[in-house]
Amino acid sequence: MKRIFFLAALALPLLVSGCKTKEPQTAETENTDEYKEMKNLQEDTENQDFLTEINQQYIAQPVDSIFFESCKLNPFENRDKEQAYIDPAGMGLINYYPDFYPLGWSRDGKLAYCIKQYFDGRGETLIRFIIQDTITDKIIYQLDDWNCGSISLFVANYGSDINSMIFDNKIILNRTAFNSPRDSAEFSFKIKATNFKEDEYGLKTLDYFVQAWKGNKSKILMTKKEVPANSVFVCGSLKSPYEDRLAIIIAEVKYGFEGHDITYLISGCHTKVGF
């Protein structure tokens, strides 16, 4: 009997130790199959939690014209005239300032936005919905309409398509704060233009790049060639609420009907990488 109790006493610590919660993995064990499986399970759980959050947001707040209008901006009013390229001959009359609607960000750098632009002469209004990857600057999805004329009708006609793309790209709808070029003491953005050309009708093209400065360090954000534009401005930026990333709003001023039209572009900028 004593021998039985003695063996049981020896086995008890082993049983208890086998039931203990595993200690957190260290760097030495991060390459083991067990650790990788645990990380995959953790990531799947996090993704499921994120999808649940998106589903709740998507059901609770599908995009509508009221939300669109609450996001409306006029970035060109805030353009940086000092760090721009401005046609020495002047820009002349600006026909109309486009409306810009930043709708929300994903946690992996995608920005959803809309542009409403009226074209004089043609008498048409272009409404364009875009989802853009601000890491690569690639346009993931674009929807153009020339017939609606108003945001309310655009959303009424295409709301289901827009909501579907917002859901698929995990965009979280929010009113993103706009920062003018003068709002930040940490960053500045400059336009450098070269290779100016003019055809026999007086239409001009140029090459340009956008340069981001942080202190005395800089990086090139975007380069474009043979652009049919007279002037190019940085109008401001939008800050992602989920990572250290900005979306820089750039305006190209081009010849239009008896005046000039404005085209908006977006270029992404990580605020900590590349400087």
Structural class: alpha+beta
Strand content: 35-45%
Spans where pLDDT lies below 50 across 5 or more residues = 4-30, 54-60
- Ends apart, CA distance between termini: 75 Å
Oligomer: single chain
Rg for CA atoms: 27 Å
Count of DSSP strands? 12
Query: Looking at the structure, what is the overall shape?
Result: globular
Order of helices and strands: HHHEEEEHEEEEEEEE
Enumerate the strands of the largest sheet in spatial order, edge to edge or round the barrel: 4-3-2-1-5
Tell me the helix content: 25-40%
- Can you give the mean pLDDT? 80
Instruction: Please tally the helical runs, counting DSSP H or I stretches of 4 or more residues.
Output: 4
Largest sheet report: 5 strands, antiparallel
Structural features, described:
The chain starts with a helix and ends in a 5-residue tail after the last strand. The protein is globular, with a radius of gyration of 27 Å. It has helices spanning 2-18, 33-60, 65-70, 151-168; strands at residues 99-105, 110-119, 124-133, 139-145, 172-173, 178-179, 187-198, 204-214, 217-227, 231-239, 245-256, 259-270. Helix content is 25%, strand content 38%. The strands form three sheets. Strands 4-3-2-1-5 form a five-stranded antiparallel beta sheet. A four-stranded antiparallel beta sheet has the order 6-10-11-12, with no helix packed on it. The protein has a three-stranded antiparallel beta sheet with strand order 7-8-9, with no helix packed on it. The protein is α+β, with helices and mostly antiparallel strands. It is built from four helices and twelve strands, in the order αααββββαββββββββ. β7 and β8 (204-214) form a beta hairpin.
